[in-house]
Amino acid sequence: MRTTLTTRIKESLTNEGFSLTGIARAEPHPDDAAIIDGWTAKGMNGSMAYLEKNRDKRADITLLVPGARSVIVAALNYYNEDLPPTSDRYFISRYARGKDYHDLIRSKLYNTVKIIREAYPDSQCRVFCDSAPLTEKAWAQRAGIGWRGRNSLIINRSLGSFFLLGEIVTDAELEYDEPITEDFCGECRKCIEGCPTGAINYDHTIDARKCISYHTIELRGETPPYIMDGMTETMIFGCDRCQEICPWNKKATRHHVREFEPSEEMLLLKRDDWHNMTEERFKRLFAGTPLERAGYNGLMHNIALAREQGTT
Ligand code: SF4
Ligand code: SF4
What is the pTM of this model? Predict the structure, then answer.
């Protein structure tokens, strides 16, 4: 029963378009909370105060989902080479060029929850994507998806790192994958050396306060001069530099997710179109995409900074 259900779950996730799947045994891992404690104690989470809360649940997933026995992790490839930045175009982080991934990944995972409930009608299952105090990178390692690179992202030897993670936590007992314990970064330091703002620490973590992605996506308000110095004149939403430079991403292949396709209208946007964009057009073009998170004013602020870089 356990083996058959494990196979059916993985087949279902593959049919939903996930490139990688793995399963780990749900059990307490106090180190997960301790690592985040050390990072937040240095203020490296910036304004993301939510990372300082729910320490107990990060340390013990059975407090997050009572009775949890298995953590199913799935990775959705989003790699594309659309919109290369040129003197006439701006750079938008690859994950943000189509529809927002949170609901998409959750709905795909819910389709797989149905398989679990067919086998165990009373089973407890919760679905996560970038939400709740679930240490998803640590669980991705335990489920055999990849290792944590120096750029802090999970890297898979076949796929690279351009993927998004989602999880199902369930009380169903399943077959478990081998964790990835080896660090395949080896002697490489390319991401540390290539980060334009020196945001990558030597312990596989990022100082969010120095990261261009954090400043152009998450943060509202003043942009510090050291971020502006690192921004190129093309970056208006995200950065991706530490992934582009990673040798493991030479293996990245284009995604097959219809929802991640940028609209034709967005693909044709030149810099002047961005400069002259009205709020009405912004809302029409980017409803339901990650750019909504920055909002019209946030994006215009980023564009003003990028233009400033172009004149210096
Ligand atoms: S996204 Fe850019 S700024 Fe942030 S860590 Fe990576 S290379 Fe550095
Ligand atoms: S660039 Fe090198 S050090 Fe950085 S994550 Fe990739 S392999 Fe690891």
Answer: 0.94
